[in-house]
Amino acid sequence: MSELPKNWISTTIGELALYVQRGKSPQYTTVSDLPVINQKCIRWRGLEKEHVKYIHPEQYSAWGEERYLRDGDILWNSTGTGTIGRACIYKDSYFPKAVADSHVTIVRFDHHHLCPEYAFYFISSPFVQKKIEEMQSGSTNQVELGRAAIVETSIPLPPLNEQKRIVA
Predict the structure, then answer these.
(1) What pTM does this model have?
(2) pLDDT digit string, tens, across residues 93-127
(3) Cα(145)–Cα(129) distance, rounded to whole angstroms?
(4) Which of 59, 76, 77, 97 could form a disulfide with 39 if both were Cys (CB 3.0 to 4.6 A apart)?
């Protein structure tokens, strides 16, 4: 990146994130109390609930508390030609409780240092989206955006008030 404005720093997603982890592969059922967000659900404008699947109740205990989605989590598609790199911000208003499947990476930040909307706009920027091809591994239709590529992604970080101004 070029020279940054005063009070900005160049850092990485890994240095800022509290949690960066792919979801898990569940045993699905028709309907349950625990929705699973998959890559088809994730759209730039938000979550499309009609694509949600559900975890079989016998598997609920297999998901630790850290895997439950939280308000402000960035959900970043990690597999698939045509969907890799697409992201959205998870909102508590979508579901009382939900998890992500193994094709989605959850990126969780400390909201006192990084505004989730700022991170989302950066991830969705042409700067990052053009680099997705370089960041991914694998071959056609089996491409993956690995955790290492995500945590190593550089991000220009202004002070929190400036992030909020940029988002506004």
Answers:
(1) 0.92
(2) 999 999 999 999 999 999 888 999 999 999 999 99
(3) 12
(4) 77
